[in-house]
Amino acid sequence: MRILVLGGTGEARALAAALLAEGMDVLSSLAGRVQRPRLPEGPVRIGGFGGADGLAAFLRQERFAAVVDTTHPFATTITANAALAAEQVGVPRLVLRRPGWDVDPVWQIVPDMAGAADAVRTWDGDSVFLTTGRRDLAVFAADERHRFLVRTVDPPDGALPPRVTLLLDRGPYTVDGERRLLREHGIGLLVTKDSGGSMTSAKLQAAREAGVQVVVVRRPPLPAGSEVVTTVEDVLDWVAQLG
Q1: CATH classification of 2-99+221-242 is 3.40.50.970, yes or no?
Q2: CATH code for the domain defined by 108-217
Q3: How confident is the model at residue 34 (pLDDT cuts 50, 70, 90)?
């Protein structure tokens, strides 16, 4: 059985290894937006497909029997394209998503990045820690009042706030390290996405201990009709049922 794994996450790497161990013919596809991605086991394809139609053509040409979307919870474009392409071709599609974080009652939950920028704009403190990724920073670019610490894996490619310190780093992070970072930069507000998982959750514990306020961007909804599981074992069971 030939399976396309849309990846780029830790779950995707674990899934590729597990499927290969089961003797499956697996191709992992990465978007190519990270300069030095962590590669999964087995064959890897890097780059876009040319939208939903391009992905549908690829599924037909390569005769995939199934698609498993294990992309980041905020990778809305590829997730939408995968849903359309799988429907066009008639290929089963499954979404593997790590659970979101347990919501702390003191967090401010916002619907999107514009909401996060509004929350920062009305905050009367000084120093903000942004951990929302390099592609969503332009919404903060007009904020001249706050100081921003921005942590990304690769350098940002858009507009930035005028008072910004850029930190290039990749998780997993430790609670001790996050405590030091918050203290050294005098952080009073943390802005993050509900990515879930353990690789970046240390900042939330450190923020809670330090009394740092937290703004969390809610996950975008999945395409209608998406079947969602939360573990690699769930995917293996689903693949076994496909026969």
Answers
A1: no
A2: 3.40.50
A3: low
